[in-house]
């Protein structure tokens, strides 16, 4: 009879949020199966350890269990398979296992657990102090290019369930709570979280680990990426016009986004630790960028012709002795992480790079790293509609002009909003932009190979 582990070995690599795509799964172990709803239909929160190519990553699976033949049609698409019943379950010898994120009956328990500050076995559901949580709302899974899985409850809350688990407090919860506590108008209010203790292989200790975060749902939100892409499309449809004169100019929004980013950085620096990077620490930063480039060149040989210029930019950072002010930052900043609401820009997803251990992501960094991330995103927005049309000189010129105009507007907004003037820190900014582009090359190679030309073409343009 099929075991659940076998089903998961086939199913996990097909999920958008699975980080180890394209690499064979050597072993899969269910480290913990927390019973949230006993019986059938039932809900387990699984912590699954997946070993690939010598390294082990952990994932969260919200596992629904129903009697085979009792799976409603609307859940058919979420079925993982039929397997032997897990230990401790009274009833049939086999069960249908499915992704419970899609089961509104099961997800209702997650919301009510948070509202009632419940402890269910080892799983702790918590309401953010000072807020209340309404229950009885139906959830819907957001579809999109996500690293995690987000549920929207009614029009009130989003519950972000973290898929790749790293032991520790998730920076998304940590920073969003800190900013909300500081009175920032640029984040969605946190309402609660779910956590469980997970053993940390690095320290041998168990650590409270965030499984999910509940936040205010921003009804009027439009994704920054969608807005920017619409502006680019308008420009492409207006041959010969400069971006400022084509309909849908984005520069005003880019300027306001720069100002919002500076305000968030200011608040983070006010309520969380800050420091200044001395030359040794700066040298380690350059080492880390160089090491990442090394890995990327081995994985994507098309990077090799540009490697010398990229290495030189990281060396320039090492030699700059800039006494870099550092603080907590967003860490994976791009247009898909910001939404425009009717009252202005709101920043989301302070998780940092999901593939990096939490301890690393909590390290202080230069706010210019976020600035570089957003500048790279303007470049992406300008280029992605060119994929397959890079021989159209007029479109390529328009793309460049759009990215340049919005880059300048964002930097101007950032500086006038109280941040440093990014244009006055070229060496540092360039190193961060190159480092992000290198990261993107690896990200696209692993997740969206049809888009790898976007960061590769930018690197070609940036390095001349
Ligand atoms: N509080 C919110 N209100 C409205 N939409 C949201 C909210 N949080 C997230 N979203 C939507 O969900 C998308 C993915 O959320 P995000 O936190 O970036 O997840 P991931 O880490 O998986 O990328 C966002 O781009 C946004 O469109
Ligand atoms: O939002 P996530 O935390 O999942 O971030 C990851 O995925 C992003 C893509 O969805 C990726 O961003 C890259 O593509 C964006 C367009 O889709 C572009 O705006 C960004 O500039 C580019 O980096 C991000 O790097 C990755 O960590």
Automatic annotation (TrEMBL):
<dbReference type="InterPro" id="IPR002575">
    <property type="entry name" value="Aminoglycoside_PTrfase"/>
</dbReference>
<keyword id="KW-0418">Kinase</keyword>
<keyword id="KW-0547">Nucleotide-binding</keyword>
<dbReference type="Pfam" id="PF01636">
    <property type="entry name" value="APH"/>
</dbReference>
<keyword id="KW-0808">Transferase</keyword>
<keyword id="KW-0321">Glycogen metabolism</keyword>
<comment type="pathway">
    <text>Glycan biosynthesis; glycogen biosynthesis.</text>
</comment>
<comment type="similarity">
    <text>Belongs to the aminoglycoside phosphotransferase family.</text>
</comment>
<dbReference type="InterPro" id="IPR040999">
    <property type="entry name" value="Mak_N_cap"/>
</dbReference>
<protein>
    <recommendedName>
        <fullName>Maltokinase</fullName>
        <ecNumber>2.7.1.175</ecNumber>
    </recommendedName>
</protein>
<feature type="domain" description="Maltokinase N-terminal cap">
    <location>
        <begin position="11"/>
        <end position="103"/>
    </location>
</feature>
<keyword id="KW-0067">ATP-binding</keyword>
<dbReference type="InterPro" id="IPR011009">
    <property type="entry name" value="Kinase-like_dom_sf"/>
</dbReference>
<keyword id="KW-0119">Carbohydrate metabolism</keyword>
<feature type="domain" description="Aminoglycoside phosphotransferase">
    <location>
        <begin position="239"/>
        <end position="383"/>
    </location>
</feature>
<comment type="subunit">
    <text>Monomer.</text>
</comment>
<dbReference type="Pfam" id="PF18085">
    <property type="entry name" value="Mak_N_cap"/>
</dbReference>
<keyword id="KW-0320">Glycogen biosynthesis</keyword>
